[in-house]
Design a protein that fits this description.
The protein is of the alpha+beta class. The protein contains 16 helices and 17 strands.
């Protein structure tokens, strides 16, 4: 629309704008100049109308801006760019849009607040310890913060405008895939402990966040986590060494236990023969000494047996041989010695095992668990009762060993399952009478080997209840 001047009376809304608004025709001459444009650029409307826009707005005459405005006319794609009007005027943002009949509409907004916000965010990005890089839709770097300059050994003036694709490492492939993926679909992506295949990074590791930018392009936020990776690798090495040391300890205990069992059992046998006058009459003090030696040797033999079971459980070599088992008949037979022991102590012993319950389990391992639980219940219950109850539910059998003893304090409930840990009354000061401190440890490990669990119920002062749960069908 060359030579046409817009009638101001027809567009009063544009006159009311606080922003400068200018239109130019196809011949690049000013066809409209509102009152805000007069104030903003210091040019009277009469002087601006009909003049080439490059004269009315000298700042628009810069070759780069002229080319971009021409592209708006050619492609009809809107443009938003910073605009420096010169002088003491405020910073502006120019929105250039094509007009339907030809020419352009130029809308100049005060960008002071926007610039202030942008400067604040720029200072924030510059101050963070993580690297930050912004890339436009054409893969051109538009921003690099100071942390990124340090981490990547680049300088802002050299990085901005460079193509990220040219400098993108080929290794690892997931790095390039994440950047291309977010650029393509706009979905954020996260990578951990990425090690770019670039020699000058000297094998450093980075955590990377790739996010889309509102105006197109992507942002990269990355943190150097090399020290963290090195610490984790060192911890993994130490853990492996500790595990190997534990396995070596278990193998040592197993070997020593095997070697000690034979002579200890011989000592037990010979001292028993001595204490029972099998070799002839012995003085009474000698018989008592032999009996005491026999008791001590039996205690050591039990300790060796417990250590052997514990170590073989720890290194997963304990054999398990499941077999069909009628539980009521089995427990009646296994617990009969304990019934007599409890009654001799003045305790009431109860067994409640419904007939007909059958499960597939290793009888010997189950016996070891039940022995440990019932022995403890009788040993540490001064009066009252010991009760063994059985019930089947949800594909498993529950064996509950209850006592009316003093219970176990809350602070001791976790550690009673630890090896060599013992809690209780003063009667446990004698090592022979208090046992090895391995019974519950072994019982819980054996429960796990059978595919079940062992837990403690009951509170301080209200007795204790140990609950063993094992599947009706033995696990593979």
């Amino acid at each position: 629309m060359p030579g046409i001047i817009v009638d101001l009376t027809r567009i009063p809304a544009l006159e009311a704008l606080a922003d400068a608004f200018v239109t130019v025709g196809e011949d690049w001459r000013v066809s409209y100049w509102n009152a805000a444009a007069e104030r903003c650029f210091g040019a009277a409307r009469e002087a601006a109308l009909g003049a080439p826009v490059w004269e009315a707005l000298p700042a628009a005459a810069q070759p780069s801006l002229r080319a971009r405005l021409a592209a708006v006319v050619a492609t009809r794609a809107p443009l938003r760019v910073p605009f420096a009007a010169g002088g003491d005027g405020p910073a502006l943002t120019l929105d250039a849009s094509p007009l339907e009949g030809g020419g352009l509409a130029l809308h100049f907004r005060d960008a002071t607040d926007h610039a202030r916000v942008a400067e604040r965010y720029s200072r924030l990005l510059a101050s963070i310890r993580d690297g930050f890089v912004a890339v436009d839709a054409d893969w051109k770097v538009v921003y690099v913060n100071s942390a990124a300059e340090t981490l990547l050994h680049v300088r802002l003036h050299k990085a901005v405008g460079a193509s990220l694709l040219v400098h993108l490492p080929s290794e690892p492939p997931e790095l390039a895939a994440a950047l291309r993926g977010t650029m393509g679909d706009g979905q954020p992506r996260r990578l951990q402990a990425v090690r770019p295949g670039v020699e000058w990074l000297r094998g450093r590791y980075f955590d990377l966040s790739v996010d889309p930018l509102a105006g197109g392009g992507i942002s990269l936020l990355f943190q150097d986590v090399t020290e963290r990776q090195e610490r984790e690798a060192e911890l993994a090495r130490l853990a492996a060494e500790a595990q190997e040391a534990s396995r070596a300890k278990s193998r040592f205990f197993a070997a020593v236990s095997h070697e000690l069992r034979t002579p200890l059992h011989a000592i037990v046998g010979y001292t028993h023969l001595l204490s029972t006058d099998s070799y002839g009459d012995m003085p009474q003090p000698a018989s008592r000494a032999a009996e005491r030696a026999s008791v001590c040797a039996e205690h050591l033999a039990r300790l060796i047996d417990d250590v052997l079971v514990l170590t073989t459980t720890e290194i997963d070599r304990l054999p398990v041989y499941p077999a069909p088992l009628k539980l009521a008949e089995y427990l009646n037979e296994v617990l009969e010695p304990f019934r007599r022991q409890a009654e001799a102590k003045g305790l009431r012993f109860e067994l409640d095992a419904p007939a007909g319950l059958t499960l597939h389990v290793d009888p010997e391992r189950l016996r070891q668990i039940v022995y440990a639980l019932v022995t403890n219940a009788i040993k540490f219950t001064p009066r009252g009762h010991v009760r063994v109850g059985v019930r089947g539910t949800d594909g498993e059998i529950e064996i509950r060993v209850e006592d009316s003893g003093p219970g176990i304090a809350a602070e001791d409930r976790a550690r009673i399952f630890e090896a060599f840990e013992q809690v209780g009354d003063d009667a446990r000061t004698d090592s022979i009478h208090r046992g090895t401190g391995l019974g519950l440890t072994i019982a819980r490990k054996l429960a796990g080997r059978l595919g079940g669990s062992l837990a403690l119920e009951g509170g301080d002062g209200a007795g204790s209840a140990f609950v063993l749960r094992v599947p009706i069908s033995a696990p593979e």
